[in-house]
Amino acid sequence: MIATLRGILAHKQPGLVVVDVHGVGYEVLVPARTGDRLPVVGEEVFLFIQTNVREDAITLYGFGEQEEKELFLLLNTVSGVGPKLALAILSGMGTRELCQAISGRDMTRLTALSGVGKKTAQRLCMELADKVAALAVPVAGGMAAEPAAAVVVEGASMEDAASALVNLGYPQATAWQALRSVQQRDPEAAAAMRVEELIREALRALA
Questions:
Q1: Can you state the percent helix, strand and coil of the chain, rounding each to 5?
Q2: Count of CB atoms situated within 10 Å of the CB of 15
Q3: CATH top-level class for 66-135?
Q4: CA 41 to chain centre
Q5: What is the pLDDT of residues 153-184, one digit of tens each?
Q6: Are 19 and 5 within 8 A, CB to CB?
Q7: Which CATH architecture fits 148-206?
Q8: Which CATH superfamily is domain 4-63 in?
Q9: d(C-alpha 94, C-alpha 109), whole Å
């Protein structure tokens, strides 16, 4: 099984990348947040990989941190949550935030995630609350962890702004990508923005 990949980022689009390893291109599905944090095409990239083998396909899922991969595997153990929904969940919320929401049984934040209804949120809390505690604090490895300031922003205004953009018809991955671009331009300014300001700046980025 492929456990990690290190190579040149040959192609990048929302939810999917191609990593060139010595002339062989590996197509990898990634959460939107992982994709946002990858370098530009042509630069070296390292991903933790989960290889799923079925009779009709071999699918690679890529993650920037080992903890993100472990959380993906845990999500897939929950009834009704498959790889596609697990990626969507990880696209909508950072690893630490998600672990905190699950362990804290925060139904409001969980049901705000794309594809997560009340029953799925309840199953996540019931089946994973005790298992995610160790993942809430990241360790070194893979990509650098997101700064604590960014997590605070995402927990409030960023989450509300993302939900508003989704309600306007934008895919969740696209909404987060636009908000990330706003945040990366000036993290301090983004942290001080109200929800409506974040939405306005994100819409400018999407224009």
A1: 50, 20, 30
A2: 17
A3: mainly alpha
A4: 19
A5: 344 577 778 778 877 888 766 777 788 788 77
A6: yes
A7: Orthogonal Bundle (1.10)
A8: Nucleic acid-binding proteins (2.40.50.140)
A9: 12
